[in-house]
Amino acid sequence: MCVSRCLRCVGVSLVPMAIVCILCNILLLVPELKIQFLLDGHVTREATWATGLWGSGFLVLLGARAFVQSSRTRGCCAFRSQMLCQLLYSCLCLLSAASCSLVSATGLSQGPLCLYNDSSGPTWGVPLQPLPGRHSGYLFNRTLWSGVCLEPSSVVQWNLVLFSVMGTVSGLQTVLCGANILNSILGLILGRGLSHSKISPVSV
Questions:
Q1: Coiled-coil intervals in this record (predicted)?
Q2: Is residue 1 included in any domain, yes or no?
Q3: What would the pLDDT profile of 129-183 be if each residue is shown by its tens digit?
Q4: Angstrom distance (rounded) from CA 111 to CA 159
Q5: How many domains does the chain have?
Q6: Which domain holds residue 163?
Q7: Residue 88 and residue 185: Cα distance in Å, rounded?
């Protein structure tokens, strides 16, 4: 039963993580909670890729549902066939969660898209991205967090918090899905486990 418990545990754990990623990505698309920035195309590129929605969100939710359902499967042959399906689901969830984590890290390091003062006047761009000979980035330089971006207000802190949360949670999802790949392989080899094997007392 150990394999079944692990499947259920991973499935239940992935659900709140997927919801967190969905919410973070939605908030990244609406800085200041104003949809006008999204309609005008003034949203950070990595947020518009929506990996928190389809990657660490809906695909991981589908995988979590399949994990919980498979943990209830009875019968040796049926269980092993389910383990093969869960192995494929786990690989898909791992790739989608890892892509979300990578995109979040990229969005975090590049900085937000915002309106800032250029030599030619106010313009939309990514002024905080690392540039050779200019600065190595804004993450460890808090003086760049305010005064550079004019609109949306506080977009630096907005992106910093949300991309950090989404990247961390999707990283945890990746670890769980990787562990579930090993669990599914064990399920294919060992079946449901040895808990059903009982030693009956010998009557004299």
A1: none
A2: yes
A3: 887 766 667 888 888 888 789 999 889 999 999 999 999 999 999 999 999 999 8
A4: 8
A5: 1
A6: 1-112+153-191
A7: 11
